[in-house]
Amino acid sequence: MLQIVGKISVATTLVFFGLAAPTMAQSYNNLALTPPMGWNSWNVFHENINEKQIHQIADAMVSSGLKDAGYIYLNLDDNWMAKHRDANGKLTHDPDRFSSGMKALGDYIHSKGLKFGIYGDRGTRTCHHYNNSDQFPGSESGSNGREELDAKTFASWGVDYLKYDNCESNPSTQEKDYTAMSKALLNSGRDIVFSICMWEYKEWMPKIANLWRTTFDIGPAWISTSWYRGVYQIIDDNNKYWQNAKPGNWNDPDMLEVGNNGLSYEEQKSQMTMWSIMAAPIMISSDVRNMSNEVKELYLNKEMIAINQDSLGVQGHRISDVDGKQVWTKPLRSGDIAVALLNNNSSTQTVECTFADLGVEGEVEVYDAWQKKNLGARTSVSAELPAHGSALLRLIIKPIPRKPFKGKAFAIPGKIEMEDFDINGVGRGNTTYNENDSEDHGATEGGSSYRPGTGVDIYKKATGYIVGYNQAGEWLEYSVKVAKTGTYIMYASVASANSTSSFKLSIDGEDITEEIAVPQASSGENNFDDYNEVEVTVNLTEGEHVLRWTVTGDWMDIDYIKFCTEGQCEITSAIRQATPAAVQNITAPHLHKKGNALFVEKSGMLFDLTGHRIK
C-alpha cells in the first residue's frame, strides 16, 4: 500500500527538468507518433505459426478488447515465408501453413480493424532459417540486395509494419543495408512502420526508422543466466538511451513476456509498469486466445496505456537508485508527471519518493494506476513493494498560469532586467526558470530577498541586481510584447572569467540566435565583474510571446538584455559584435539536445537537467 510520508500546506509550483514541451514531432515517415502497440507471434509460438492460428489471434484481439484499447498491430514474426522465392524472385508464403497467401491474411486482419505486421531480415536468410540450415538449405528468405522488390511486395499485401532482423549478414554494412530497406519502404507506395531489430542502438537509426531494438532478445526471467536477456537487464540497458526517444522514434526493449511462463505476477506487472514509463512499444507475445483475467487486466489498464501513449513523447528515465529501490519519472503532455517506483531486490522493500526531488513543491493529487484510485493530495509517497514489484503513479499538476513579474509583459523595443523573469506557474508551459543547483549563491551578496524561494542566484551590485552563477542548462523566461514585426538589434550585458561561456535566445520555443560567445574578462583569474555588451541582429514578430534565455556553455553572469531598432539604440558600454560560441575546452560543461531531451555534458559525462548522471 502507498502511504503518506509527509504533508505540508504550501503553494504548489513546478520547476520541471528543464524540458520545454515540444510540439508533435515528425519522424522520417510521420508514422508511429506514439509507441506502437499490438501483438507479435515469436515469444509464444516461435516458428510454429499458421493461418488458422493467426485468424484466431485476430478474432481474440477484437473480442477481448485489446484492439479497442490500442493494440492494433498483429505482427507475424519469422517463418511465415517459403524457403524459396517465386519465379519472379518475390518472397512468398509457406504453401502448407499459409495456404491462402499473405494478401488474403492481410485482408482478414484489416477486416477486423487491425494492422498487418510482418518480419524480414537484412541478410541472406532470416534468423530461423539460418539457425536451422539443415531444414532450410538454399533458403532465400533474406532481403539483402532485394530491398526494393521486397518492400513493394510487402506493400502489395497490405503490410503496415516491418520488423527487420539482422541474421546471416555483413557486420560492416549494417547502416547501408538498413538504409536501403528504409528508402525502399518510403518508395513502396504504402505507409509502413519500420522497426530495426539489430539488437543494439546506433546513432544513425533515428534518421531511418521508427523504432529500434536497444538490446539482445528478451526471455522469461527477471535476471537471466541464459543466452537471452532478463526483463530487468533490458530495463537497465534501455534506460541509457532515453534521450533519443521522441514521437516517431522509439527505443524498443523487445516484446512482453507477460502472460507466458517464467515471470511471477509481480514481475509481469513490473514489465508493464516499466514499458509504460519508458514509452516503449508494447507488443504482447502470449496466447491471447486463452488469457487469464489477471493478465488481461494488466494489458488493458487504461492509465498504464495512457502514460505509455502520451503524445509528448518523452521516454521516462531513472532518477534515483538506492540499493535497488528506484524512482523513474516521465513528463506528460498535460503537465502531469508519471512516476514509477521499482524494487529490484529479492525481498520486500519500501521505496520512497519525495516530490520536491522531482521539482514539485507542495501538495499534488496522486493517482495510482494499478490500484485504480486517487490517493489524495500529498507531497511524497512510500510504497511497500514485494520482490521485483512496482507502483505506477500520476502526479496531477493543476495548471496555474505564469505571470509577468511586474504585472505586464516587457515591451520590445525596450530593456529586460534579467532578475525580473516571470513568476512561476504550474503545468505545461507555465514553468518560467530552470535552476540546476539548490544553493542560493546570491544570499551573501544581498540579492536573495529580491526573488525569494526561486533559488535563482541574484546578486546586488552597485548598478543594481544581476543574475549570476549561471551554468549550462539553466534558463529564464520573460513575457514580452513586440511592437512591430521587423529586425531588431539585441544587446546583452554579460560577464565571465571563462573563455567557454555562451548563451542563446529563443521565442516561443524557436531559436532566434545561435549560441553567442561571452567575452572573457580581460584581467583577473576569477573576474565576473568585467561586463561587456554583445550585439546581434534578430527578427521578431509583432505580438505577445515568451522569450527564453538559455545558458549553453560555462559559468557566466548577466545583467540585462535590450532590444532596439537601427539608429535608436543607446550605447552604454563597450560593445562587441556577437560571435558564434566555439567551445574549445572539451571538459567545460555544455548543453546538448537529443530527441526530446536536454542534457549537460561535463568532463565527458552526461547529466539530465536535474543533475542526475545519465549512465
Features of this protein?
615 residues, alpha+beta, 7-stranded mixed beta sheet, 37 strands, 15% helix, globular, disordered N terminus, disordered C terminus
Counting helices, strands and paired strands, the structural category is alpha+beta
What is the beta-strand fraction? 25-35%
Which outline best applies? globular
Low-confidence stretches at least 5 residues in length (pLDDT < 50)?
A: 1-25, 582-586, 609-613
DSSP E strands, number = 37
Measured as a percent range, the helix fraction is: 10-25%
Major β-sheet strand ordering: 9-8-7-6-5-4-3-10
Any idea what the radius of gyration is? 27 Å
**Total helix count?**
11
Give the end-to-end Cα distance, rounded to a whole number of Å: 31 Å
Mean pLDDT: 89
Largest sheet: 8 strands, parallel
- In quaternary terms, these chains amount to single chain
Question: What's the quick description here?
Answer:
The protein is 15% helix and 30% strand.
Can you walk through the features of this model?
With 615 residues, the chain is of the alpha+beta class. Helix 6 runs parallel beside helix 7. The chain is globular and about 85 Å long. The N terminus and C terminus are likely disordered. It contains eleven helices and 37 strands. An eight-stranded parallel beta sheet has the order 9-8-7-6-5-4-3-10. Strands 20, 22, 25, 27, 28, 29 and 31 form a seven-stranded mixed beta sheet that branches. Strands 21, 23, 24, 26, 30, 32 and 33 form a seven-stranded mixed beta sheet that branches. A hairpin with a 2-residue loop joins strand 27 and strand 28.
